[in-house]
């Protein structure tokens, strides 16, 4: 009888663990893979937004834009993912952009 109860408890624990793991959401951030334009929106130290990446009229703040790509109106091809955070520009509480992490970037 004790063996039956132990076996049943083990199966119950395995089933519960499996069902909990099946309910987890995919934590992968969405990927951007598109043509874009790098623009300069003023020095961050002077309440500007620094270099931003514009894709389909949506502005993003790159957290790791390479130095070679820091040029105003530079046309690029970018592969990036969202960090889930926002970058606030200056003192304006209503001006913030989604932050992206660049996986790869090349000039067009």
Automatic annotation (TrEMBL):
Assigned keywords, A-Z: Signal
Signal sequence, start to end: 1-22
Record-given protein name: Lipoprotein
The species this protein was found in: Mucilaginibacter myungsuensis
């Amino acid at each position: 009888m004790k063996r039956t109860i132990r076996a049943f408890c083990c199966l119950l624990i395995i089933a519960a663990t499996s069902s909990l793991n099946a309910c987890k959401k995919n934590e992968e951030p969405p990927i951007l893979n598109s043509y874009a334009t790098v623009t300069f929106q003023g020095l961050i130290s002077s309440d500007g937004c620094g270099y931003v990446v514009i894709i389909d009229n949506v502005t993003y703040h790159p957290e790791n834009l390479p130095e070679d790509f820091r040029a105003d109106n530079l046309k690029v091809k970018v592969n990036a993912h969202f960090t889930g955070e926002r970058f606030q520009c200056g003192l304006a509480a209503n001006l913030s952009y989604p932050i992206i992490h660049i996986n790869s970037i090349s000039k067009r």
